[in-house]
Write a structure and sequence with these properties.
Blueprint lengths: L21 H6 L2 H11 L20 E4 L6 E5 L6 E6 L5 E7 L2 H12 L4 H7 L7 H8 L2 H10 L8 H9 L7 E5 L2 E5 L9 E6 L5 E5 L2 E8 L2 H14 L1
Antiparallel strand pairs: 1-2, 2-3, 3-4, 5-6, 6-7, 7-8, 8-9
Helix pairs in contact: 2-3, 5-6
């Protein structure tokens, strides 16, 4: 090791994690190693370039494209593990998991690029897991499924009466509900992270405060659910 704290000609700073990934150092990082392993196993992961688009991901993270979003790989800590995330690029994850076998990583990516369904992926690679919402996105009914999830979530019992009232309205139940920082958010388009939203949270009293992402300073408070629902429908008409 030279006086700058790097290991030989690799240019990487000395790090205890390297003892688990010496082969990655020798091959030039995670991205280059995955590409090399894929070629050794004659597995097509869709790579045509010799280098990743960004050199910043070359050591500990690697991204690869697929028709359904980015396929991301990251290094584990404290042991040799490779974490695989099949991202949708729409704000949700299709499936994720980890394995110590880099050959399995490239096989997962190739299988996914070929159009494998979630159930097929999990059956062939049991370490790859997905939830009911990911399945709903694949089946084409994420909004309906998400309403079932949030209404049944024991962590948000205080919201259940409100959720049932919102879901009872035929227009509002077409929105995608989710919680963030104890605030209920309902978005018009679950496939667009920039879609306008209606936001609701409990007030200091016994009612709720409601506003829209279009006008976050215009907050209104209601103690009656009927009034709140009417306000939500009115806001939806302006989004």
């Amino acid at each position: 090791m030279n006086s700058s704290g790097t290991t030989g000609s690799t240019g990487y700073s000395e790090d205890p994690r390297f003892r688990y990934y010496e082969d990655l150092v020798e091959r030039g990082g995670l991205w280059a190693t995955i590409v090399s392993v894929a070629r050794e196993h004659r597995v097509d992961i869709g790579v045509t370039a010799e280098r990743p688009e960004s050199n910043t991901q070359a050591w500990s993270a690697a991204d690869f494209a697929s028709p359904r979003g980015a396929m991301r790989v990251n290094l584990g800590h404290g042991a040799r593990r490779f974490a695989v995330t099949l991202d949708s690029n729409w704000g949700y994850v299709w499936a994720s998991g980890s394995t110590a076998d880099l050959a399995e990583v490239v096989e997962v990516m190739a299988f996914w690029r070929q159009g494998a369904r979630l159930q097929e992926l999990s059956k062939r690679f049991p370490f790859m897991e997905f939830d009911s919402l990911s399945q709903a996105y694949e089946d084409g009914n994420p909004v309906e499924t998400q309403w079932d999830i949030v209404i049944g979530d024991e962590n948000f019992l205080v919201y259940r009466e409100l959720l049932l009232a919102l879901h009872a309205d035929p227009n509002l139940r077409e929105m995608f509900p989710f919680f963030s920082h104890w605030t209920l958010r309902m978005t018009k388009d679950c496939y667009d992270s920039r879609s306008e939203e209606i936001l609701i949270k409990p007030s200091a009293g016994e009612g709720y405060v409601i506003w829209s992402s279009l006008d976050p300073e215009e907050k209104r408070e209601f103690s009656r659910l009927d009034d709140l629902i009417r306000a939500a429908v009115s806001i939806l008409g302006d989004l």
